[in-house]
Amino acid sequence: MRKHSKLVLVIGLLYFCPTLHADELGKPDGVALFASEQDGYATYRIPSLTVTPQGTVLAICEGRKNGRSDAGDIDLVIKRSTDNGQSWGAQQVIWDDAGNTCGNPCTVVDSDTGTVWLLCTWNLGDDTESEIIAGKSKDSRRVFVMSSSNDGATWSTPREITSDVKDPNWTWYATGPGSGIRIEQGKHRGRLVIPCDHIEADTRGYYSHVIFSDDHGATWTLGGVTPKRNVNECEVVELQGGRLMLNMRNYDRSKTTRQVAFSDDGGMTWADQKFAPALIEPICQAAIERYPVDGKDAHSVLIFSNPASKKGRVRMTLRASFDEGKTWAAERLLHEGPSAYSDLAVLANGRIACFYEAGVRSPYETIVFSQTELSQLKEAQSEVGTKSSDSDAKRSE
C-alpha cells in the first residue's frame, strides 16, 4: 500500500472510529520548545518567530499561568538560539504584568539598525474577550511596543501606543500574531509593517488592518483597513515591486479558505479582497513569509503554514508558491494530528523554520520548532496532496 493510501486510511478510521488512539497519527515534526505544565505555566500558545541580522533565532509565545483561557494571567516568554535552532537557551520572561494579560506577540526586524521590535496587546486579566467586544469591560484592549538591540537578550520597558494606532470606535484589538515585515522595495522601502485586527463597536464586525513605522520604530501609525468584514488574525508579505498582500483568517463560511487583500501604497489602503481557494482552513491563524532565492528579494518564493483542513485544527502543512501566491505547487506535511497557530522564518543557513502549536491529543500541548529545506517542499508535492483534506478528522478547539 502506498504511503498516501495509508494516510487516508488512518484519517478515515479516526473520523469514523472515535476509539482510535490519537497517538497513532504520530508525533509532530521538530523539537518541542515549550510544553504544557513546564517552567511555571499551564499552557503555551501564540507563537512568534524571528531571526536577527546576526542570525539569532528568537522564539516568543504566551505563557498562560492557569490554563488555556485567552484571559487571565498571561506573560510573554522567549527562548533564543545562536546556532540555527540546534540548541536553545533557558526560557526568559519578556513581560509579566502581575495577573494581567500580555499577549499577541508580533515581531519585526529593522535590518538598518538591527533592532527587533515586538508589538503586543494588554488587557486586565479579569476582562474577557466577550466583555471587551461588548464594551462592558473594566478597561480597554491596549497596544504596546518593546524593542531589543542585543538579539533578544534584553528588552525595553513596554511603551503604550494605543492612541496612535487604535480608533476610539474599536473595542477588540489584536496585533498579529506572528511576524511583520520591513518593506524592501519601492518608495516605501524601510517601512516596518505590523498586521493587526479589530472589531468596530457599531457593527461588532471583525476587520484586518496594519500599523506601520517610517522612523525605525520611534513612532507607529495606523494604516489601512480591509474593505470587507469577517476577517481578523493576519500576516503580511511583500510581493515583487513592493506590493503587499495581507493573508487573513476567514469567518465568511461560504468558503472554507483563507482571504487575501492587496496594497499598492505601503499598507495605507487595501483592495481586491477575495478568497484564496487553494489555502483551505478550519478558521485558524496562519503564517506567510517571503523566501529570497539566491539571497535576492526580487526573486522570491512565498512560504505558508496552517492546519490545512476544512473540518478541524489538524494537518499542519508547509506550502510554497513560485508565482506570487497565485498557486501553491509544493508542500510538506509537518504533523497529521492536532495543530493550530504557527509562524515562519528563514534561518541564516537558508532553511525554513516553522514554529507551530501541535500535540498528540490536543493542538495546545506543545509549541514545536521544525526546520525544512526548500527542496523538501518541492519533492513533497508527489507525496502529500490536498485530496485527503475533506476527510480530515474534526479536532478544533
Automatic annotation (TrEMBL):
Q: Which residues form a coiled coil?
A: none
Q: Which reaction does it catalyse?
A: Hydrolysis of alpha-(2->3)-, alpha-(2->6)-, alpha-(2->8)- glycosidic linkages of terminal sialic acid residues in oligosaccharides, glycoproteins, glycolipids, colominic acid and synthetic substrates
Source organism of this protein record:
Novipirellula herctigrandis
Q: Which InterPro entries match?
A: Sialidase, Sialidase_fam, Sialidase_sf
The record's annotation in SUPFAM superfamilies points to: Sialidases (SSF50939)
Q: Can you name a GO cellular component term?
A: membrane
Q: Which GO terms describe its molecular function?
A: exo-alpha-sialidase activity
Tell me which EC number(s) this protein carries: 3.2.1.18
The identity of this protein, by name, is exo-alpha-sialidase
